[in-house]
């Protein structure tokens, strides 16, 4: 049978039967890469699985065992995984080169090796380099076995012989399956290797962590094409200018994808940041126009972040709008509401919105802080720096209730804010921390007039 050829976009994972210069799904240019389907398992000789007839059975008769979890030693990572790593699962840790993926996985070895046997396979660094890094991170244990190899058949053979509890592969782009003619890092190889590691996880009861590099220009097959195969996809993000990193789950078969983990890259590896609000608010300008503090829920945890806005007279025919860390279309909508309902004339001004610290505020509760920051910049009057704002803004300029208000208020209070602006509605049995003044407002005009 002729091998089937398909094409994948390395940026978004879209599949097409023919090569195209531009991906029809995400619009990226020159990201399509050829992928030759592997022959059916029956033709693969000894790797074929025994044919057994599977019959459907009632859900009540299915034996699922119990989900076994173990802590990784980094509370922030456990939180993103949904309460610890799950046995027999495959976790993909994706991120830009140099963000700290290898550091994260080597660091968890120190805790894992207390009770478990770990096999760390690196196709990128030599054993000496890994040892130097391990010394720097304070990892020294005999339960950690290193293997510097890129040939997948040898790696799998080693794993099957050693039977480790945890297997770490750094990185998937450097591994290659000798049965496959494609070059390492290509979509075909990356998929074949991931599938093999998935079989290793499910068949031998090994927990597998795989590192995948994300490359913006799509030169290397990105983890996007692997997302549907693995159990859990974690993205490790951060800005090169800052030394803190955010770990977020894009997919998790064993937990929520809302949680984030926050780390700081220090000279001895990654340090957990259990209170990200403090970090995000550090260095905040006081008495400066165009800044307001927002409180967003990141999973189960409230996080405070600073929203900045700059309203400047435009030199363009059409005024510019720009948003970083906040949805662009939402920002445009809010500026229209601010103009029409808040009485702030923005038609001759460019508006730039920025959320400090690389955080994405994708929550309606951040609407009011964006409006207030823009109004403050327009009037060139600072907001009181001990005030935080929470509220969703509707098209008539009204403020609408948000979820988990009590939790947000206690975080606002914990960080030493004196006052918090909240919507008048929907706050029936609210627990207000003592010492925190609550300002209930009905609409954005009332908020602007009270605070500015
Ligand atoms: P690394 O884990 O090698 O990145 P990745 O595997 O994602 O490509 O991290 C490399 C960066 O981390 C490098 O720029 C140096 C920095 N780093 C520290 O700042 N402190 C440390 O203790 C370590 C080990 C790395
Ligand atoms: Mg690395």
UniProtKB/TrEMBL annotation:
The segment annotated Disordered runs over 38-59
Q: Where is this region: Lon-protease-like?
A: 350-452
Q: Which SUPFAM superfamilies has this protein been placed in?
A: P-loop containing nucleoside triphosphate hydrolases (SSF52540), Ribosomal protein S5 domain 2-like (SSF54211)
Task: Tell me the InterPro entries matching this sequence.
Answer: AAA+_ATPase, DNA_repair_RadA, Lon_proteolytic, P-loop_NTPase, RecA_ATP-bd, Ribosomal_Su5_D2-typ_SF, Ribsml_uS5_D2-typ_fold_subgr, Rubredoxin_2
Q: Which GO terms describe its molecular function?
A: ATP binding; ATP-dependent DNA damage sensor activity; ATP-dependent peptidase activity; damaged DNA binding; serine-type endopeptidase activity; zinc ion binding
A GO cellular component entry from the record: cytosol
Pfam families in the cross-refs: AAA_25 (PF13481), Lon_C (PF05362), Zn_ribbon_LapB (PF18073)
Motif RadA KNRFG motif, chain ranges: 251-255
- Basic and acidic residues bias (residue ranges): 49-59
> Which sites bind ATP?
95-102
Task: Note the CDD domains from the entry.
Answer: RadA_SMS_N (cd01121)
Establish whether keyword Nucleotide-binding is in the entry: yes
GO biological process, alphabetically ordered: proteolysis; recombinational repair
Keyword list (alphabetical) reads:
ATP-binding, DNA damage, DNA repair, DNA-binding, Hydrolase, Metal-binding, Nucleotide-binding, Stress response, Zinc, Zinc-finger
Where would I find the RecA family profile domain in this sequence? Answer: 66-214
Role noted for this protein: DNA-dependent ATPase involved in processing of recombination intermediates, plays a role in repairing DNA breaks. Stimulates the branch migration of RecA-mediated strand transfer reactions, allowing the 3' invading strand to extend heteroduplex DNA faster. Binds ssDNA in the presence of ADP but not other nucleotides, has ATPase activity that is stimulated by ssDNA and various branched DNA structures, but inhibited by SSB. Does not have RecA's homology-searching function.
Q: Let me see what the UniProt entry remarks about domains.
A: The middle region has homology to RecA with ATPase motifs including the RadA KNRFG motif, while the C-terminus is homologous to Lon protease.
Name the NCBIfam families on file: sms
The record's similarity note reads: Belongs to the RecA family. RadA subfamily.
Q: What is this protein called?
A: DNA repair protein RadA
Q: Coding gene?
A: radA
